Amino acid sequence: MNDNMLISVLNLKKYYKGGEIKALDGVSADIHKGEVVVVIGPSGSGKSTFLRCLNLLEVPTDGHILFNGTDITDAKTDINVHRQKMGMVFQHFNLFPHMTVLKNMTIGPIKILKKSKDEAEAQAMALLKRVGLEDRASAYPSQLSGGQKQRIAIVRALCMNPDVMLFDEPTSALDPEMVGEVLDVMKQLAREGMTMVVVTHEMGFAREVGSRVIFMDEGKIVEENQPSVIFDSPESDRLKSFLKKVL
Amino acid sequence: MGTQVSEVMSQWLNTAPQWILNLPKGLSEFCYKIFKCFIFDDRYMLFVKGLGNTLVITFFALLIGIALGVLVSLVRVTWDKNGLEMRRGPGKFFLWLANFLCKIYLTIIRGTPVVVQILIYYFIIMTSSDKLTTAIVAFGVNSGAYVAEIMRSGIMSIDIGQNEAGRSLGFGYVATMRFIILPQAFKNVLPALANEFIVLLKETAVAGYIGLADLAYAGSIVGGNTYEYLVPLVFGVALVYLILVMFFTWLVGKLERRLRASER
């Protein structure tokens, strides 16, 4: 394994109802440091399941995931330690509604990383400034727009200084006019060299920011290549028909 | 008995201000009854001590009930959400057993009257304890079953995404519960918990069955001694319960509004 490897997925399977439903049916993929891997595919193709398996929110039925060289699917691995290094952003934001924005962002660093309150708040404020929301630090999530919520969710994950950021359809629950502000933050993040795995329907983002695009269907990776190849000269018929519908 | 009546009457005639004795007959008679039930022989002390016992039982039973209820609800929720997917082993067996015992506890406590429960504690289980301790344990254990189901419904009502967000930050199961799920669940079930608290406060009135002198007991004792029932039961007992409940309802309302601040 080379030094550049961050996540290595080996023959990952996720079955439901004792194998009746195969959400993931033998997926292997490598994610290198600094890469932006965009996962696309029709709904039900297993792309979200794939992403959620990466930090074991879904426990795979079979297969292995090596993260920083550790097999996190091993029952003896303390997954909590590794999840600290994997930021996750959800479709429905999942901010903590009973905490202010600042508390949302600092509870992880304070309780898990044992940072001092001052240090955690200073870091959070710096991140809020970067996404232009420093004036909302004391607001509660219910007082924010969808786009603001998702930007907060991104910086909340960044507060843990993750090695990789996992995005699960981060713009799918947003009003169209708020998609841009979230994508801008993600683009900025990608430019700064953050390793990202993004499940999305935003083909423009995939083409512009992605270093690699994975096309999934029926629990399998059908095609995997640079964005220009995926979008301009797709090989498989399944990808061709998918792109015809979404572009 | 006749001498006693005259003793009350003579003391009343000696101490009552003239203007009260000069009131219309019905009113002055009512004042006499108040005197007889509360002031004569320091009978108000029965009510004060009874109220004290009622509040002490309610307070400590509430603490036991909440502690027990949260614990039982956590076992039930943890088993319901994760139990079947757990790997076989001692951990799974232990959780299964804990859940099974919790279910038995809930069934028995919710399936039998609290009066019967307190009598069983008094005559069978806690024969060497004093009445106050017995009552606190009986009502605490009873309340715990209802708090458990209230808390369980609160925890189940929290979106699964909250758990996922907590876990993906790196919080363990317990820490996610503590910092993220329980505070929200508690806020959601506060009205139901307040209701349970009010029920508990009033339910302690059956402590009289084991001869514990609580507020309601004081009312019936004074009623029996004076043959006056309206004044002690309505003004000495019912009204006090009502005022207490109204006060606590107001207090919980304030707490609720404070917790809901984040939703505006």
Topology:
The complex is a heterodimer of chains A (247) and B (264).
Chain A: E1 5-16, E2 21-32, E3 36-40, H1 47-54, E4 62-67, E5 70-71, H2 79-83, E6 86-89, H3 101-111, H4 117-130, H5 146-158, E7 164-168, H6 176-191, E8 195-199, H7 203-209, E9 212-217, E10 220-225, H8 227-232, H9 237-246
Parallel strand pairs in A: 3-8, 3-9, 6-7, 7-8
Antiparallel strand pairs in A: 1-2, 1-4, 4-5, 9-10
Helix pairs in contact in A: 3-4, 3-5, 5-6
Chain B: H1 2-15, H2 18-21, H3 25-39, H4 44-82, H5 90-111, H6 114-125, H7 131-157, H8 160-169, H9 173-203, H10 215-226, H11 230-259
Helix pairs in contact in B: 4-5, 4-7, 4-10, 5-7, 6-7, 7-9, 8-9, 9-11, 10-11
Task: Throw out a few tags for this protein.
heterodimer; A: alpha/beta; 6-stranded mixed beta sheet; 4-stranded antiparallel beta sheet; B: 264 residues; mainly alpha; MetI-like fold
Strand percent estimate of chain B: under 5%
Record the strand order, biggest sheet of chain A. Answer: 6-7-8-3-9-10
Total number of helices of chain A: 9
Q: What is CATH's topology name of chain B?
A: MetI-like fold
Pair with the biggest interface: A-B, 31 and 25 residues
Largest β sheet strand count, sense and barrel closure of chain A: 6 strands, mixed
**N-end to C-end Cα span of chain A:** 37 Å
Q: How would you state the average pLDDT of chain B, rounded?
A: 92
- Shape summary of chain B: elongated
Going by helix content, strand content and strand pairing, the class of chain B is: mainly alpha
* Low-pLDDT segments, ≥5 res of chain A: none
CATH architecture of chain B: Orthogonal Bundle
CATH class of chain B: Mainly Alpha
The average pLDDT of chain A is 95
Main β sheet profile of chain B: none
Our measurement of the CA-to-CA distance between the termini of chain B, rounded to an integer number of angstroms, reads 65 Å
- Beta-strand percentage of chain A? 25-35%
- The run of helices and strands of chain A is EEEHEEHEHHHEHEHEEHH
Order of helices and strands of chain B, N to C?
Answer: HHHHHHHHHHH
Q: Give the overall silhouette of chain A.
A: globular
Count of alpha/pi helices of chain B: 11
